[in-house]
Design brief:
The chain is α/β, with parallel strands linked by helices and 455 residues long. It has 14 helices and 15 strands. 37% of the residues lie in helices and 16% in strands. It starts with 28 loop residues before the first helix and ends with a helix. It binds the ligand Cc1ncc(COP(=O)(O)O)c(CNCCCC(=O)O)c1O. Pfam families: Aminotran_3 (PF00202).
């Protein structure tokens, strides 16, 4: 039998040369003109990390209106995981646009929604009956996961972890750890949300069992299991800085939840959909969540999110209790089917592992040169470096956000788009699409090497 790794993966055909190219100042003149227009009609609350206006995107490359080409190491914060304008996604969405663009699934359903629910049942961890409700955004998925857990348990309490991020709606703002810029001034916030210490091995030095005992003790004292509907956990914390918990931490939390009748919800909105080399990061930790939340990469750039859970939990919601006008839109659902098919046909789980090797190898070389690189962490194509003040990597590990900002600025001027993260803004995160070649990663890291040398 041919090993899947021996199966030739089709060489993708790109519509944009996969190379970095800077031909004007960044931002260029056309971007600057567009920015002037934007300031007249878009509030500053909608900020842009890099105010260059993108005219085309394909594979791992963004092309701005001035003809500059950027290596995109952010994928729109983990959305274009299989590559920008991936051919099969474009074809599936285009075909669907000609057939059905909208009916509202809760009025007259259509197959694409059902097919996505079947694929999520197949690829989320756990061999049991599952149900999925499709919505439009990650925060909407979190909101629906919480309300279904509350209905199922008859309890109100929502437990979350330090350094978590879950969205920008009223409930999810209350669930986030960092207030600014997401929540400042936007209160009052939803109640019955209880935040406990997480596992952050680089800083706490705790084993998974020790960190889990701390989390559980905190929740038992501040709210009590009997009042908790759910515990919502990112297997790898995204906006919090790609914090990978200590081995055993997450399964210890899940065991406690199971024993106490608390719904364990894995927020896989940033870590899911092949990003880490598994369909869902939970699999790396032996987790079988009661509910898995998906979004971002699921539809290749189109807005779609899923709440997938044990049938007996999901079926707690009364008929008509779940829905929304655009939830599971046919075009987004068709794109999602193409994403799942592309992950299989192009062996993208292996590509994520390839990218981990390329990124970790290159970043390890940089860490040997620059002592401000405190830790390299992450899994698959979800890798980050935490930057610390010089000389503190093995002592206080004091955050160094100035270095992060200087590196991002240097890199973007030279055609490499890399994103920040972390509660203290001192994390550089790498979320490249799985279409990013080793050569592009090496080129991008050479620019980041120059940036470190300039610090
Ligand atoms: C784990 C996790 N859960 C939930 C969400 C929220 O998903 P939405 O699709 O942005 O609502 C996210 C979104 N993270 C990026 C936010 C970007 C921004 O708003 O500036 C996440 O990472």
């Amino acid at each position: 039998m041919t090993d899947i790794l021996d199966t030739p993966v089709a060489t993708p055909v790109y519509t944009v040369p996969q190379e970095r190219k800077i031909v004007t100042a960044v931002p260029g003149p056309k971007s600057q003109e567009l920015h002037r227009r934007r300031l007249e009609v878009v509030p500053p609350g909608v900020s842009s990390a890099l105010p260059v206006y993108i005219a085309k995107a394909n594979g791992a490359i963004l092309v701005d209106v001035d003809g500059n080409q950027f290596i995109d190491l952010g994928a729109g914060i983990g959305v274009t995981t299989i590559g920008h304008t991936e051919a099969s996604v474009v074809a599936a969405a285009a075909a669907q646009l000609h057939d059905v663009t909208h009916t509202l699934f809760t009025i007259t359903p259509y197959e694409e929604y059902v097919r996505v629910a079947e694929l999520l049942a197949q690829h989320t961890p756990g061999d049991f009956a599952k149900r999925t409700v499709l919505v439009n955004s990650g925060a909407e998925a979190v909101e629906n996961g919480v309300k279904i857990a509350r209905k199922h348990t008859g309890r109100n309490g929502v437990a979350v972890l330090e350094h978590a991020y879950h969205g920008r709606t009223n409930l999810t703002m209350a669930m986030n750890y960092k207030a600014s810029p997401y929540a400042t001034g936007f209160g009052p916030f939803a109640g019955d949300v209880y935040r406990a210490p997480n596992s952050y091995p680089y800083h706490d030095g705790l084993s998974g069992a020790e960190a889990a005992a701390r989390t559980i003790a905190y929740l038992e004292k501040t709210v009590g299991a009997a009042d908790l509907a759910c515990l919502v956990v990112e297997p790898i914390q995204g906006e919090g800085g790609f914090v990978v918990p200590a081995p055993g931490y997450l399964t210890a939390l899940q065991e406690w939840c199971t024993a106490e009748g608390i719904v364990f919800i894995a927020d896989e909105i940033q870590s899911g959909m092949a990003r880490t080399g598994e369909y869902f990061a939970s699999s790396h930790f032996g987790l079988v969540p009661d509910m898995v939340l998906s979004a971002k990469g699921i539809a290749g750039g189109l807005p779609l999110a899923g709440v997938t859970g044990r049938a007996e939990i999901m079926d707690s919601a009364q008929p008509g209790g779940l829905g929304g006008t655009f939830g599971g839109n046919p075009v987004a659902a068709a794109a999602a089917v193409a994403v799942f098919e592309s992950i299989e046909s192009n062996d993208l789980l292996a590509e994520a592992k390839r990218i981990e090797t390329a990124l970790v190898g290159g970043l390890t070389e940089l860490q040997q040169k620059y002592d401000v690189i405190g830790e390299i962490r992450g899994i698959g194509a979800m890798i980050a470096i935490e930057l610390v003040q010089p000389g503190t990597a093995s002592t206080t590990k004091a955050p160094n956000s100035d270095a992060v900002n200087a590196i991002v600025s240097y890199a973007t001027q030279r055609g490499v788009l890399v994103l920040t993260a972390g509660t203290y803004g001192n994390v550089l995160r790498f979320l490249p699409s799985l279409a990013t070649s080793d050569a592009l990663i090496a080129d991008a890291l050479s620019v980041i090497d120059e940036a470190f040398a300039q610090l």
